[in-house]
Amino acid sequence: MCGIAGMIDLNGGRRLAPRGAVARMAQAIIHRGPDEDGFLDEPGLHLANRRLSIVGLADGRQPISNEDGMVTTVFNGELYDYPEKRAALVAKGHTFRTHTDTELIPHLWEEHGTDFWNQLRGQFAICLYDRRSGEIVLGRDRSGICPLFFSIQRIDGTDWLLFASEIKALFASGFVTPQADPAGLSQILSFFAMPGPATVFQGVQSVLPGRFLHLRPGRASVALQTQQRIYWEVNYPDKGDEDYGADETKIVDEFEELLYAAVERRLRADVPVVSYLSGGVDSSLVVAMACRALGRAIPTFTVAVTKPGFNEESEALQTAKYLGCEPIVVPCGDAELRGDYPELIAAAECPVIDTACLGLMHLARSVHRHGYKVAMTGEGADEWLAGYPWFKVSRLTKFLEMVPGVPLGYAVRTAAMKIAGQPAFPLDTYKRPEQLFGERNGWLDIYGMMSLSKLRFLTGDMRSAVLKHSAFDDLELPTRLKRWHPFHRGMYLGARVMLAGHLLSSKGDRVAMHSSVEARYPFLDEELVDFMAKLHPRWKLRGLLKDKFVERKVAQRWLPKDVAWRRKKMFRAPMDSWFGKNQAPMPWIEQVISPESLRKTGYFDARAVQVARAQLAGMRTRSLGRPALEMGLTAVMATQLWHHLFLKADLCELPSALPTPAMAVAA
User: Fold this and answer.
1) What is the dotted CATH code of the domain comprising 2-230?
2) What are phi and psi of 286, to 5 degrees?
3) Would you report the helix, strand and coil content of the chain in percent, each value rounded to 5?
4) Is the Cβ–Cβ distance between 40 and 17 less than 8 Å?
5) Which one, 142, 181, 517, 636, has the greatest CB density within 10 A?
6) Is 544 left (phi over 0), alpha (psi -120 to 50) or beta?
7) Residue 645: closest CA among 634, 631, 659
8) DSSP assignment, residue 69?
């Protein structure tokens, strides 16, 4: 994995970028590629790469071009079918000069043009330049594992597109000024994720998963060039056309074959590969298959949340012992949570409400300290195989929607919110997502209830700005969605919002690459995702309790039965770490949520925050209203901290997270 950045003159005037701008951008993401750097400087085009060398260690420096130097690319990620693709291209007469997978990209462009995206297998963010045609493309992998952001800035009369793997690199250019974007904050406060394309910064967009920009500087308008084009998105069969799978053995065999191949491909590297290991079936199965593929046990890394009820260490160690792995346990308790959260927000570049992200940050830090660069993980199975509790909630509450025209679901959900201490909400707020998706689903019920905490805390002006339009309207849903099985609609929503918007960013790439570690995801293999999509929902959730059914059937062949069928725990660190009665003082927490700081930012009502803190202090640990209140206050604290770190460092004693001014040198 690496980091990429650059500046492109969209007007075709082929001017040189301001001196030192791209060099500063590359320096701001040095943690993504500490091994070496590389630059391309031409009139109208400036590219940079920071490399974390994993494949082709000795000769993989970027940018990399084809034989005649006419097609050049910078690349962040891995192409797992590199050996097979290389052999096929050589057979067609292409010449390779390196041992890195990056070199596939210019050759695939020569063969397929803009259709080359469909030839790529792996995780990637790419900028490619064809000198012959003047075309430039910027794109991102199907699942959104590798991040890619861009901003359009008018500099000395020219429209420049600035792009980078992280937003802080855009700020380092000196031409993008951090300002809050209410639309992006609305996504965070509605979804606890940032699915995009909006970000929490005005004028900064993310390239969505499975999309690309096709730039033709000087030959098309800026608006047309920066329109995101779709080359892939998950596609479920129409309801009734799913693969029902009458032959269970055949379905299980095919899933096993595809997953094992995905694990094998993600072990390809010129450096050792390790794996994260929780107590759940997903990472356990990945580790088991990796050990078989390598013919030896691999090191495993497990986070131990030092709080009763949250720790999966014993379950993970059981699996490690069974497979003969060397387990490395990484503790994460209240002290780490409170002390390191500012570092997490700085890495993620947005408010982070899920405290479990800190555990993943500690895991990556430990991987790096032990001398490794690559770690596999089990993310993705829950999204595509119904591993989360809201899928069960959806089935349990389905009967509430059976009476046409009678909003029983609304009445019951309003009652549940009242019990949980949440504010009342208008029927339109309930109906809008239902209109978009055709009906309610469990994801909307659980996350929708939690996200309405924003109504409790936002000031009048901020509330109006955030609620001016529904965050759901930003999701750009496929028109065919309503033809899918309702179960698959809910599955798509969870993946569209949470996968790239949170699990692969704040909980994935951002915390891993912060420690120069590449995370790899076998369950997000292209062939496996397509296979899971075509299956009937019964292979994902059987009855009310048997989630990830087809995966667990495979796991029975590889792991003890109690591991294969172990119930999922929602991994999170305890949120009462912020405001617990017996916690040691942590000045920045009180400082960022002080009435003075809340008035400075203008996002949240100081009185409402004070009342909520008093309510929390008087609640029992297992009170029904406690989780929503904790998450609401965490959202307030995280947003205030984000504002301090990136917008104006005047809320607490912590330093700004913005890149420091650098000497203007030529890239």
Assistant:
1) 3.60.20.10
2) -60, -45
3) 45, 15, 40
4) no
5) 636
6) alpha
7) 659
8) S
3-state class (DSSP) for residue 656: coil
Tell which residue, 449, 444, 451, has the closest CA to residue 401. Answer: 444
- Per-residue confidence band for 234, with pLDDT thresholds at 50, 70 and 90: very high
**289: its two tokens:** 């298959």
**Cβ 178 vs Cβ 646: under 8 Å:** yes
Residue 572 scores a pLDDT above 80:
no
CATH number at 248-379+504-564: 3.40.50.620
* Nearest C-alpha neighbor of 149 from the set 100, 194, 89: 194
Q: Which residues contact 372 (CB under 8 A, 6 or more apart)?
A: 271, 272, 273, 274, 299, 517
In sequence order, what are the beta bridge partners of 65? Answer: 72
58: Cα separation from own chain's centroid: 30
> Is residue 568 over pLDDT 90?
no
d(CA 510, CA 583): 28
pLDDT digits (tens, 9 = 90+) for 441-491: 666 766 666 666 677 899 988 888 777 777 888 888 898 998 999 889 988
**Region of poorest pLDDT, from 121-130, 131-140, 422-431, 628-637:** 422-431
Of 177-181, 467-471, 580-584, least confident by mean pLDDT is 580-584
Phi, psi of 63 (to 5 degrees): -65, 155
| pLDDT value, residue 355 | 85
Domains in the chain: boundaries: 2-230, 248-379+504-564, 392-485, 580-646
Q: What span, in angstroms and rounded, lies between the C-alpha atoms of 156 and 245?
A: 61
Which pLDDT belongs to residue 440? Answer: 63
Q: Is the CB of residue 519 less than 8 Å from the CB of residue 474?
A: no
Q: What is the pLDDT of residues 425-434, one digit of tens each?
A: 555 655 666 6
605-641: per-residue pLDDT in tens?
A: 999 999 988 888 888 766 767 777 888 889 999 999 9
Among 127-141, 531-545, 649-663, top mean pLDDT goes to 127-141
Query: Residue 275: enclosing H or E segment and its boundaries?
Result: strand 273-276
Residue 403 burial (10 A CB sphere; 0-12, 13-18, 19+): exposed
- Mean pLDDT across the chain, nearest whole number? 89
Q: 75 φ, ψ to 5°?
A: -145, 135
Rg (CA), the chain: 24
The top-scoring range by mean pLDDT among 164-173, 384-393, 485-494 is 164-173
CB atoms within 10 A of CB 395: 16
Alpha-carbon distance of 350 to 642, in angstroms, equals: 6
Q: How far apart are CA 245 and CA 259, in angstroms?
A: 18
Q: Are 574 and 307 in contact (CB under 8 A)?
A: yes
CB 276 within 8 A of CB 62: no
Rounded Cα distance, 505 and 387, in Å: 20
Q: How does strand 158-164 pair with strand 273-276?
A: unpaired
Can you give the three-state secondary structure of 603-616, one letter per residue?
CECHHHHHHHHHHH
User: Quick one: which H or E segment has residue 342?
Assistant: helix 334-348
**Alpha-carbon distance 637 to 353, whole Å?**
9
Calpha distance 383→394 (Å, rounded)? 15
- Rounded to 5°, the CA angle 391-440-572 comes to 40
Rounded-to-integer distance, Cα 46 and Cα 217, Å: 14
Neighbours of 16 (CB within 10 A): 14
Q: How far is CA 73 from CA 6, 30, 98, 180, 516, in A?
A: 11, 19, 14, 32, 22
Q: Find the DSSP H helices in 485-594.
A: 486-494, 510-513, 526-534, 549-555, 561-564, 587-592
